[in-house]
Design goal:
Layout (H helix, E strand, L loop, with lengths): L9 E5 L6 H11 L3 E3 L3 E2 L11 E2 L2 H9 L3 E7 L2 E6 L2 H7 L2 E5 L5 H8 L2 E7 L2 H11 L4 H10 L10 E6 L4 H12 L9
Parallel strand pairs: 1-7, 1-8, 2-7, 3-4, 8-9
Antiparallel strand pairs: 3-6, 5-6
C-alpha cells in the first residue's frame, strides 16, 4: 500500500505574450501559502530580461535534451524552452507549482505531470497591444505576429482549464485565479 502523499499539482499559466502571466504568477506566489514557481530554461540571452529564467546556449540545451535533463521542452518564437526534471522535487514539498507553459504543449504536460491545472489568461486585444509595445522586447512586426496568435485556444481534452480575464485590474484576475486554485492545492509540506 502506497502511503506517500500525492504530488502537488502543476499549475500551467498560459496565454498570449503581454497578457500578464508573470504579474499574475508573482501575485499568486505572494498570496497563496506553499505555492512555488518552476523557472524555465530558455535559449534567450540573460540580458533580455522579462521573466526570471535560466539562460542557456543552443548547444547546452541540446545536451540537456539528450541527458535527459528536461521533464518537458518545446520551441516557440524562435527560442527553445524547457521545464527541468527537478520540478518533481518541488511537487513533493509545495502546495502547487506554477509554471509558464506554451498552449501547444499542454496535452504533453498533462501526460507528463498527471495533475495539471491550466489557468488560461486572456485580455482584450488593445490591452495586449499596449503591453507588448511597452515592454520593448519585440519590433512592430513581431508584436503584430503575437497579436495574431493571441486568440489561439487551449487544446481540447484537458482535465482542468480555468479562463482568467486580465483585461482590467490585475486584482480581479488574481481573485479569479485564487478561487479556481483553492480546491486543488495540496496542504503545505515541510
Amino acid at each position: 500500500m502506497n502511503t506517500q502523499p500525492a504530488k502537488a499539482p502543476v499549475i500551467a499559466v498560459v496565454g498570449p505574450s503581454g497578457v500578464g502571466k508573470d504579474s499574475l504568477m508573482d501575485a499568486l506566489l505572494e498570496r497563496v501559502p506553499g505555492l512555488v514557481r518552476q523557472r524555465r530554461i530558455i535559449t534567450r540571452a540573460p540580458e533580455l530580461g522579462g521573466e526570471d529564467y535560466d539562460a542557456v546556449t543552443e548547444d547546452r540545451f541540446a545536451t540537456l535534451c539528450s541527458a535527459p535533463g528536461f521533464a518537458l521542452h518545446w520551441q516557440a518564437h524562435g527560442l527553445r524552452y524547457a521545464i527541468p526534471r527537478d520540478i518533481d522535487e518541488l511537487r513533493n514539498r509545495a502546495s502547487g507549482v506554477l509554471v509558464n507553459l506554451s498552449r501547444k504543449v499542454l496535452l504533453e504536460a498533462e501526460a507528463a505531470f498527471g495533475t495539471l491545472i491550466v489557468l488560461s489568461v486572456t485580455a482584450a486585444p488593445e490591452a495586449l497591444a499596449a503591453r507588448l509595445s511597452a515592454r520593448g522586447r519585440e519590433d512592430s512586426a513581431e508584436v503584430e505576429r503575437r497579436l495574431a496568435r493571441a486568440s489561439t485556444p487551449v487544446p481540447a481534452g484537458l482535465s482542468q482549464v480555468f479562463d482568467i480575464d486580465n483585461s482590467g485590474q490585475l486584482e480581479e484576475a488574481i481573485k479569479a485565479a485564487e478561487t479556481a486554485l483553492m480546491p486543488w492545492l495540496q496542504p503545505e509540506r515541510a
